[in-house]
Amino acid sequence: MLKTVIKTTAFLLACCCLQQVIAQSRSFSAGSPAAGIGFGNSENYSGLRFNIRDKQVARINGVSITGIAKAQIKKGLNIGFIITDSISSGIAISPVFTGATTVNGVGIGGIACGGDVINGLGIGGLVVANNKARGITLGMITIADTMQGITLSLCGTFSKNDAGQGNVTGLITSLYVNRLYSLKGLCIGAFNSMECQEGMAVGVYNCSTDLRGIQIGLWNVAKNKKMMKQMPFINFNFKKKRFIAGA
Hints:
eleven-stranded mixed β-sheet, single chain, 247 residues, elongated, mainly beta
């Protein structure tokens, strides 16, 4: 019992001393000032690093365990309660939100994973790429301007509906809805709606404004065809020239 009290007291005193050191110098390193095992808000560090909240942090290499992660560049394993780095390269894991301006590698967020560009694997309840998602995305809902690769969504996949945005290439799957601007590849979902389709759409209901491919489903709509625009089970069109109604 006495040994336990002594060990606990010594540990608490050590924590207090460490807190004072960190408070005075913003960081403490067991090793060199820029490498080893670090505690606190080190601006540039390599190794194993612990911090409560990042502030004006430039570059971290190695393993970073942070409450609120917000650095310019992080490379390696990044674990935090909320991650909002500028560039994240490696593996970033958060129970709430994992995000960065650019995610290179693996981004896992319990509630959401997002960024301007996601290169690699993005996993989250909500996966949002304001610009591009390239690689594999897994989520309840996926929203991106451009998707390249494999997108697996439980509820829905959405891309912007304006000319020049929303280009999707590869495999898109959703149990419910896929609403895309431009598709080149395979789209699988209960309800599939897109402006331009080159490839195949499989679902209960498929609708394309400009179809140059195949639709397979209970009801299929190809608005650019002169005849048989709406067909059960299968519809197709392979003409390269887009038909404009009223022309």
